[in-house]
Amino acid sequence: MARFNKIQVLTAMGKTGMVPVFFNKDLDVCKHVLKACYDGGVRVFEFTNRGDFAHEIFGELNKWAAEACPELILGAGTVIDAPTAALYIQLGANFIVGPNLNPEIAPVCNRRLVPYTPGCGSVSEISDAQALGCDVTKVFPAGNVGGPSFVKNLLGPLRWSNVMVTGAVAPDQENLTAWIKSGVFCVGMGSKLFPKDDIAAGNWKAITQRCVQALGYIQSARA
């Protein structure tokens, strides 16, 4: 069962403005990355379902995080079908994210009041997702469907939309400022937040500092 309710999840996403996205087959690496992000101010984290036995890693990571990072809201990403969504919800996922929009996932999440954020690449998909009860929709891959200008133009007719963008998001001031100024609700960020060299070297402090800087850029752009 989710430790955080739907309102808490959505509030944290909007307040911090950033959701790190990460997967590693090594549970200890995942713990270090999670803690590094938490120490850097991150409060919402997406563990992606991208490897064999990923759900087993998630289950252990979620139990560990409840003690080590008590304010961290952990969810599952790269969820493309309803059975997988149900599996992660049973393991305590506080939210579900997908690269695509699957109408069968929405009722599974809605019955448990777990936010479902599907990947959308058009105004029609975003509108359809909202009709299914999705409070936050993910524009993905954001850099390929039009970048910040797409979000800005989308929010003209659909000004009530809460948009997360993933893909082509980097932890530098110019990039984050452009996305925030376009009107996004939050950004999702993966590989550029977690360079392979830092992971291989166990340079967790670098990840913490990168999170601190990125969150600072977001707050500055909002101001």
From TrEMBL:
Keywords: Carbohydrate metabolism, Lyase. Pathway: Carbohydrate acid metabolism. It holds the Pfam family Aldolase. One of its GO terms (molecular function) is 2-dehydro-3-deoxy-phosphogluconate aldolase activity. The keyword Transcription regulation does not apply. CDD domains: KDPG_aldolase (cd00452). InterPro entries: Aldlse_KDPG_KHG (IPR000887), Aldolase_TIM (IPR013785). It is an enzyme of class 4 (lyase). Its EC number is 4.1.2.14, 4.1.3.16. The keyword Lyase applies. Homotrimer. Belongs to the KHG/KDPG aldolase family. PANTHER family: 2-DEHYDRO-3-DEOXY-6-PHOSPHOGALACTONATE ALDOLASE-RELATED (PTHR30246:SF1), 2-KETO-3-DEOXY-6-PHOSPHOGLUCONATE ALDOLASE (PTHR30246). NCBIfam families: PRK07114.1. This is Bifunctional 4-hydroxy-2-oxoglutarate aldolase/2-dehydro-3-deoxy-phosphogluconate aldolase. It comes from Segatella cerevisiae.
